[in-house]
Design goal:
single chain, 249 residues, mainly alpha
Length: 249
């Protein structure tokens, strides 16, 4: 129906224009041939302008599409780098969970808290890989920075070792006992202050460990990391498909 209407306009319009030129209007100069020539030039300029507009619009749309595709392709390296880091974090947490399970199965009398205060050295991040996350997807960047910050704090907290500080506390307590036994008041006061500082430091470290584990559990960070990996992998797959389409021409 639409094609038939266009065809009708093409046939009828010239006939209508010809009919208009049969009328002679007052104060209008020039022969019919002159007016036909003027109308041809005038309508040609209008048609040419319309065609030029649509060609220009199409070219601009193609340019914007090409720029958008180039921007996505330029993000590929950064996505591959951060995917590697996310996999590293996810694997570290999975290994830690297996260690925890084995620990609690082996030591039946121990609790989760006993496991949490142990010292663990997790794999470090390669911060150079995180320098390439300047993606246009601001939501993804925000999630990645949250994961990075969590893992850095989590790793630092878990690496705290209380063996040395416990040995220092034991030594200070022994000196306190001897100072009290020998009535060395000044030394006793000084040692008591050192003991308080060591015990505060020891408790602060434990609180950091408990807080790190709590954040992992309560904020469901493992799932957040898994979702981020899926998002990054989907973007990588999309860009690779885009590149293959371009290569095919």
């Amino acid at each position: 129906m639409k094609k038939l209407s266009v065809f009708g306009v093409i046939i009828i319009l010239p006939m209508f224009i010809n009919l208009l030129f049969t009328f002679k209007l007052p104060f209008v100069q020039g022969s019919m041939d002159n007016w036909f020539s003027f109308f041809g030039s005038y309508s040609g300029a209008i048609v040419g302008g319309i065609v030029a507009y649509f060609i220009s619009k199409l070219q601009w749309q193609n340019h914007k599409k090409s720029e958008e595709e180039n921007r996505k392709i330029n993000e590929l390296f950064g996505l591959i780098c951060v995917k590697r880091e996310l996999k590293k974090i996810h694997q570290s947490i999975e290994i830690l969970e297996r260690v925890k399970k084995n620990f609690l199965e082996k030591y039946k009398n121990f609790t989760h808290e006993d496991f949490y205060i142990q010292s663990y050295n997790l794999e470090n991040l390669d911060l150079d890989n995180w320098d390439n996350i300047n993606f246009s997807d601001s939501d993804l960047v925000e999630k990645l920075l949250k994961i990075q910050e969590f893992y850095i704090d989590f790793r630092e907290a878990l690496s705290l070792d209380f063996k040395k500080i416990k040995a220092e506390i034991y030594e200070v307590k022994h000196k306190l006992y001897r100072a009290n036994l020998n009535n060395k008041t000044d030394e006793y006061i000084m040692l008591n202050k050192i003991l308080s500082e060591l015990e505060y430091k020891n408790q602060e470290g434990k609180d950091l460990k408990f807080s790190a584990w709590e954040k992992l559990r309560n904020e469901n960070m493992k799932k957040e990391i898994s979702n981020a990996i899926t998002t990054v992998e989907n973007k990588i797959s999309h860009i690779n498909n885009l590149k293959r389409t371009r290569e095919k021409g």
